[in-house]
Amino acid sequence: MYKTGGTEVLELEQMDKPVPKIGQVLVKVKSISINFADVLVRRGHYPYMPDFPATPGAECTGYIERVGPGVKDFTAGQAVLVFGKPCYSSYLAVSQERVFPIPEGVDLDEAAALPVTYLTAWHMLHTMRRVREHETILLYAAAGGVGTAVLQLAKLAGARVIGLTSNETKADYLRKAGCWQVINYKTENVLSRVMDVTHGLGADLILDSVGGESFKDNFRMLNTLGQIIWLGISGGMPRGNILKTFARNPAPSYTVSVFHLFSIIQNRPLLRRSLQNLIQLLAEGKIKPVIHERLPLLEAGRAHDMLEQQQNIGKIILHP
Prior knowledge:
Blueprint: E1 24-33, H1 36-43, E2 59-67, E3 79-83, E4 91-95, E5 99-101, H2 108-112, H3 115-128, E6 136-139, H4 145-157, E7 160-165, H5 168-177, E8 181-184, H6 190-197, E9 203-208, E10 222-230, H7 242-247, E11 254-258, H8 261-266, H9 268-283, E12 291-296, H10 300-308, E13 315-319
């Protein structure tokens, strides 16, 4: 990318294979997982914009082709996950601190889909909330990458999920995947349905990746001592004074939190510990990232279009 804009700004260029420096490894990339943050970077709307020219992406898997001087924990031929490095590429020279070993037998497409979505889901459920058995979670964008990750981890914890989605195809998938209740927000009154199925109590935890005008309704769907975690603004910023919205909320006691994965990335020990736990869950078959489609890297623009048009259930993977 030499500038921001539509998918036409994504250009595939031929470049020399990088040479790993001290403390780096050279990774031959096999699977690239894309996220909505990649779309925001392309549009120029991401809070942490890179310098141009820029390569999008943050997570991929592949095999180490070569290790640089001083690298002792990795060897050539080893399958690895790379996180926190622009990765729409065939080869990456990356610091060993951003590389995580993948156990033998783990699918590389599925492993590539772990970091952004499952780290987000894990820390919302187990760090910010410490979700308990039988709690009710209201989940926006339930069929997306983060949504499908939350659903799997919530089920492991014994919680029940009310999933919000935009069409019947996604609704059918969510029911089969184990959603306790599914609401099509385009055809149903979300507030009425949530309060009906919870017998007037509301949700214990609301995970809102949308924002926009729906944000204010969250307070009317929240159980006493409940929590709202705001993790995205795909629907735009809420209008008006958010603090006044908090003050006028009829619920007697509640918590509003904001989650941003960047804070986890900055805490290297926490990041490594969390990702290693998730990789182990994947290896044990306790979680399984949902892959919507696999496309060649040349079709990255098409993949972005699918995300923007909300066509995906789960993750989209690019193959160089």
